[in-house]
C-alpha cells in the first residue's frame, strides 16, 4: 500500500492498493509503504488498536507493519482537516 502527500496547490492524502483507492480490506497483517513528501502535512492512521503517524513538517519514506482488526479506520493530515479518508476492515 502506498500513501502519498505532495506539496502542491492540490496536496492530498490517500491510501492506495494496486493503484486503486482503498475502501475495504480483510482483517490481518499489512505492510504500509508511507511516502510523505510534504512539509505542511503528515499521514495519520487511526482505527481499532492503531494510531500511527508521520511528523508534520518532516518528509520521509517509511514502512509500517500493522495488524488491522475489524472496524473503521481513518487517515488524515494533522496539518489540514480537509485532507482525510477512511476504509472499513471486515
Notes on the structure:
The chain is mainly beta and 90 residues long. It has a single domain (2-89), classed as Cupredoxins -  blue copper proteins (Immunoglobulin-like, Sandwich). 0% of the residues lie in helices and 61% in strands. It is built from no helices and ten strands. The strands form two sheets. The protein has a five-stranded mixed β-sheet, with no helix packed on it. A five-stranded mixed β-sheet has the order 4-10-9-6-7, with no helix packed on it. It starts with a strand and ends with a strand.
Notable characteristics:
single chain, 90 residues, mainly beta, Immunoglobulin-like, 5-stranded mixed sheet, 0% helix
Gap from first CA to last CA: 17 Å
How much of the sequence lies in strands comes to over 45%
Dominant shape: globular
Which regions contain 5 or more consecutive residues with pLDDT less than 50? 5-10
By CATH, the topology is Immunoglobulin-like
Question: Which structural class fits the helix and strand makeup?
Answer: mainly beta
How many distinct helices?
0
Number of strands: 10
Report the CATH architecture: Sandwich
Largest sheet descriptor: 5 strands, mixed
Amino acid at each position: 500500500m502506498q500513501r502519498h502527500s505532495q506539496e502542491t496547490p492540490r496536496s492530498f492524502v490517500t491510501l492506495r492498493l494496486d493503484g486503486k483507492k482503498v475502501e475495504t480490506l480483510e482483517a490481518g497483517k499489512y505492510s504500509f509503504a508511507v511516502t510523505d513528501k510534504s512539509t505542511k502535512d503528515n499521514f495519520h492512521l487511526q482505527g481499532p488498536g492503531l494510531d500511527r503517524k508521520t511528523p508534520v513538517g518532516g518528509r520521509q519514506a517509511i514502512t509500517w507493519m500493522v495488524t488491522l482488526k475489524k472496524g473503521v479506520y481513518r487517515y488524515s493530515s494533522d496539518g489540514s482537516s480537509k485532507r482525510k479518508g477512511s476504509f472499513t476492515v471486515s
